[in-house]
Amino acid sequence: MHQQTDLKNxxxxxxxEYVLSLxxxxxxxxxxxxxxxxxGITDFSxxxxxxxxxxxxxxxxxxxxxxxxxxxxxxxxxAVKFGFRLEDGLMIESVLIPEEDRxxxxxxxxxxxxxxxxxxxxGQMGFRRNLSRAEIVNQICAVRDWLLENAGDNEGLQLxxxxxxxxxxxxxxxxxxxxxxxxxxxxxQRGLDFSARKITVSTCGLVPQMLELxxxxxxxxxxxxxxxxxxxxxxxxxxxxxxxxxxxxxxCKNYSGKKRQxxxxxxxxxxxxxxxxxxxxxxxxxxxxxxxxxxxLAMNEGGGLNYxxxxxxxxxxxxxxxxxxxxxxxxxxxxxxDISAACGLLxxxxxxx
Length: 353
Description:
By secondary structure, the chain is an alpha/beta fold. Helices cover 34% and strands 18% of the residues. The strands form three sheets. A ten-stranded mixed beta sheet has the order 3-4-5-6-9-10-11-12-13-14, with helices on one face.
């Protein structure tokens, strides 16, 4: 009995190589991809334009994994948290954030996280393992299918999945090869056909991989900054000891994104730590010369973490100082906090510290 190859781990080019290894012509690999990601296709026998003998070989040698029966929790603000059980029994979570004109899925890239950011529950649970490409892609497939089943008369949900953000469990750039492979699968026109403009990859600042991502992909980049000086950032994010702010910002300036593409800096405000007028002015000076947008977010209180959220007026004041310096600044409304689906709160309950 052969070890079965999960076809959802393969990019379009790798599918071509795979069918060649089975003695089939290359075009069969290009025929296969649209079938793998077509709705309702769970079995090779359904792939009617493939030769019967080839389908029999695939049934023996290959499989198409999927996530069935996710555990779902719906927040009072409409966000939906999905819990997916992996083959080894571990759990990952993805969060669907419906808005009027878009449906964004927050995707996980690892089980747990090794970055140990002090304010993040996922970081507190530690690192278990990287997700495979199939495990990344199957989150998107499962939520796409869920939306179709549950859209009903809701026009917003009928849009289907429009945007993907790699901001779930894990540091995406620490699972670099599988991240790149999954991005290739997601943006393949014959497959899931997402536009790279609708995909954002977030990092806490792994500088070499950031630069490599810029060379290898045209997706949007978000950088979790959270402080404008090294002492404060290191106290919140141990990764800053490895790649301090100066190195991180040099990489941001050299990031070879598309023309007119701006880096999104994520800045979470913690009361009394990084939320003063002086911090805002320091941030404005720091980001001068980097084509960017700034996302402000109030700390999500929960999970017994020792930080508190500043009052909303403080966020508005912080935003105004940055806007006076001609930055584009959004205040991101936290979604799903009541079901532990908000930023920094994703952690498998049984594994959380």
